[in-house]
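Q: Hand in one record:
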Amino acid sequence: MRVMTDAAVVEGIAVDNVTAWMQANVACEPPFDFALIAGGRSNMTYTVCDSAGRRFVLRRPPMGRLLPSAHDVAREHRLMHALQNSAVPVPRLVGLCQDEAVNERDFYVMHFLDGVIVRDIEIGRTITPQARTRMCRELIGTLTDLHRVDIDQVGLGNLAKRSGYIERQIKRWTGQWEQSKQRDIPLIDRVREALVDRLPADARTTIAHGDYRLSNCMMDPDGPVAGVLDWELCTLGDPMADLAGLLGYWYDPEDPEVGGDNETTGLDGFLSQEEMAGLYADEMGISLERVSYYQGFAAWRLACITEGVYARYLRGQQGTQEEELDLDVYRDTVVARVERAARHLGVA
């Protein structure tokens, strides 16, 4: 769903300044139609259409006060630029603007990518069971392609430290939780303590997307991944955390207690969590012995992230969106996710 706007007043866009920047950086014909894409929970995303029908996408941070190191769109741009010629499908980039005089904060523009984002069960029902199965296999194949990228060869060797990924992530999201929380949830602390006590040995360092899931990929309706999106949380780290994150969003009718947040992947043709994990393990030649730890970490981390999103919506930082969002349900999702983390880790 798009939020249509008056071309003269667009929330989060300085129309005249951005139009001038677009004219200087890409072949286009103003005036432009800017439209906020509803559904974004982090960086704000707009479609940009010129008078000749060309389509682009613009990404910028939310409005208002931001947490330190969060919403780094320049980092997103760097990641996708590095992967332009890799086996990982990413959108074609137009450019990055870091002159805050243009639009208050950094932003980047990329070419519009055709495809479908399977973000809810209604969209999932439009896809054949055969295509759903292929989507599962393609999602895992693309994830393994990402984890095989030579980080030095693509210029990302200095993106982050190459050790202590889980420990660093626990520290980061503990800090974000403390700055964002709208209430106390003691289980957050108990799960964090269990994660620290059971830290795994450092794994092979790869690019870790940080939020790899079906709804963060533009899919070809026939199944292939047309483009991986939303690189804001990407870093160098443990590839098992990406797999666990994907499983954390994956609703599984066989095990709904640890499944995802909607029933899309319960439709016929979608593989189970166990089948998805098995495909990844077979392709990468790894053991799934500690997958429950990583699933607990992924669910705890997502609870912390969700609280931050909830707080930004309460402060009105995500722009005016026409989609219906029940903030009470969203608030309760935080509790459900940390409870899921506790089940994975056996924390009372």
Observations:
- The chain has two domains: 2-111, 121-345.
- The mean pLDDT is 90.
- DSSP finds eleven helices and ten strands in the chain.
- The two ends are 40 Å apart (CA to CA).
